[in-house]
Request: fold
Amino acid sequence: MNKLLSANFARLKKDTALKLCIIFMFVMGVLLPFMNYRTMTAYDIPIYIDGSFFDYISFMAIIFPAFCSLFIGTEYNDGTIRNKLIIGHKRMDIYLSNLAACIAAGAAMCIAYLIPYLAAGIPLMGFFNIDHISTIWILLGCSLMLIIALASIFTLVSMLNQNKALSAVICILGLFVLLIAGIMINNQLSMPEYYDEYAYIDPDTKELVTEPSMANPFYIQGTQRKIYEFLNDFLPGSQIVRLSSMDVPYPEILSMYSGIIAIAATSLGIFFFRKEDIK
Reply:
């Protein structure tokens, strides 16, 4: 196992795709504070460093599936996995070493954003505008669990699909489906139960008309709302949306669900990889 991990981390150091991902995250980490500062000075409105701090999750999630599928797919294309089996490495060790490499790469991408963001953001916008700085650390831990869950899903797909291009398409499209589902669920749950009372001037009579508050017919309630709330906590796409906006009242629940996803995906992956016919 140690030899497999060493070989994978040696590959990561030379991997061109990872370098490009890190450069992208670094650029975004530098660019966003300056964009926020420009908006803050142009419109004279306060913008705190908190606002875009967790945007790294959205950026990382977009490029992460492509990296995982390419990194693992290259092992199939080059015959590396077959060679590892021939010299006696266990299938579970091969699977877990690739998963560990993907998790490490995802964490490296996030760090590549956070360091320049803090270095540029603190001098321009000041420190965090939050009551308890421990909240930032808790959400960072929650985002790490999400990275592990995503890496587990992408490793599952890539290890069970020996076609690098196809696994990349499945991972990327799957992530976008999860993101769209997360945005839609979040929007549905954000709808108010009642529309507030409002007034307007009738263009025909020129009189002030007051409309009373009324129930929102699209408001979700009952069992359906409980299902939506569960999906909003459970689905990785919803977690990405919520962590990016720091809308996480119970981060321990999201971390627990991420752990469940990681364990389930890894268990399924190892089970089926043991039966995979390696070409």
